[in-house]
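User: Here's a chain of 423 residues. Predict its fold as tokens.
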Amino acid sequence: MKKKIVSILAGMLMLANFAACGSEGSVTVPETSPVQVTEPAEEAQAAPEDNTEEHFRIGIVTGSFAQSEDDRRGAEAFLDKYGADNVTLAVYPDNFTDEPDVTIQTIVNLADDPEMKAIIVNQAVDGTTEAFRQIKEKRPDIICIAGEPYEDFCDIEEVADLVVSSDFVGRGYLMINTAHELGCDTFVHISFERHLEYESISRRVAIMKAACEEFGMKFEMEEAPDPTTDVGVPGAQAYILEHAPKWVDKYGTNTAFFCTNDAHTEPLIKVLLEKGGYFIEADLPSPLMGYPGALDLDFTGDAGDFDKVLNTVEDAVVNAGGAGRFGTWVYSYGYSMSLGLAEHARNVILGESDLTNKDDIAKALGSFAEDAEWNGSRYTDAVTGKTSDNVYLVYQDTYIFGNPGRYMGITNVEIPEKYFTIY
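Assistant: Prediction complete.
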């Protein structure tokens, strides 16, 4: 890595009237893979000898590899580290929007294990709130943690012990700030109706518009098909491949483009590498998000080695002429949440951390990502002005590929107070 950074979570409180309770706008990806069930213990690695006296049972529920590869890999990394005696994995259905009962039951089933101490769901898709409610009714001792929730904060925080989400407010300002620093004069937001109905995304759009006005930039919006509709992922990606070149011609090569859906990311990066334009970071950033497909890179067996992944992607971006125009988070957000939240739960179970202490959460997120700086804040409801005790919004420093690449230092940028009240 290019730089040594200490992982932190800033303790700044968001002001009153910051964000009304609404659905968290996580991206969704193709819902086509078969439902996977709890991992068989015999296929997992036995618990390492130095952990045999520190028994804890943690369940981690994620999407499948097809749905949420990084989330899944983070969960598997935790399993590999601590073994099947301590860790149980499960997968919710790819078509979770159509199978809420299956999602709920998949999560609740983990509580049938009498030794279960904590359950983490990442991403916490629709149904997680009800699953946690059922778990708390029969096993109130189990720690329930939601990563990147889709459901209303004001609902899930009532049944979850801890909720951690990407900072849609801070990043709304910081992505525009970064685009301005890189010399962009226009920012284009690509999404569709379903996503724009999420409070987190609609609020972020409002913040982005205001930030563009502050920095003298134009803000534009383009619509692309929802991959969960009849067009599917192939149709949505074909649309981006056809229309993104026209958008570059329309807005110019000093334009930064952003999309809210995973399926749109790969074709968008591919077009921008060929036609020009900037891509600050993905909605849920990772060097594995969009870049391997756009650059024809194969990370089979290496997806958890982020040193290798970053260096390989960076070399490919530079060779494709994209130095200084494309960015990411060095460590995948999804991977970080699955592994980091599970590590935090372990620390709490063993009495080494407090569940809602921001520094302890930071310690867990940074325990495997030594070169990535984190920042964040507690969530404040816009209507009530109440700051949550157990909901945190987090983000990682943006890394721009180049020769050499560089961190933008956004975790040290002070966000003007007015942006915490925009919605």
